[in-house]
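Hi C.,

You asked whether I'd gotten around to modeling the 254-residue construct. I have! Everything is below, sequence then structure, no commentary in between.
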Amino acid sequence: MSIVRTAWALAAALGAAGAAWAFDESADGERALSPREDEKVAWKLTTTYYSTTNEPGAGDINLRGVYGPHTAWVGYYEQPGEFRQARVGYEYTVHLPACRWCWGRSTRRRGFSVAPWRRRWAGDVYGLIGVSRTNEKPYFNLNFDPNDAWTFGVGARLAHDTSFLAYQVRGEWVAAGQQVTHAVYRTRPTPETRVGIDLFYKYGPLEGEDGVTVRAAGASVALDYRAWFARITWDPKVNFTPNDMLRVAVGLRF
């Protein structure tokens, strides 16, 4: 089992802070993780349980660390009696006066490999465009959006530590016709808490079934309190299969 996935993203400022899309190795929807001024490394440990209809439950653990321009992670996914996969990855970010480039690589046991690129411009309102491609070999998709796809979006950083991002992942090639549209809202009610909501709608052909179309809506809600965080996600027709998935994640930043 192997896959090579390349991705690049361009976040162009439409007014004035940007974000970029790339491979999300812990499936938490959060790519920005920076150490505080008094820290050398910012660590994030995420444990996730997957409950899927018609399949055994599965678990995942992911440890990510950020040190200056360097980001590295190691993780392990297992569905007892069905599938297991270890992974490691690394990203390097180059900060330029007007933008930020990032290159990375992720490899997994059984040959899974990911090579993401992304570019980011500073600003309070930004656009987003990206593309990713695989070698079309079978694998388990922990992104839960099509991997062979284009991504388009727009976002804004608002007042009071609030942000909003709307984007669509449009499947191409082996994932032709599969679309997932996200609306993501994050805010900090207090300095010690953060709330995140991701509403998404998927539309497109069911995997392995001709003439069957998926139309389903799901949601993810995350709560951070100090160093701890928890997230719950309901994902019907997960990865455009007949199955529905409930994901529950808890973790710690340190």
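If it helps when you're writing up: The chain has one domain: 3-253.

Thanks,
B.
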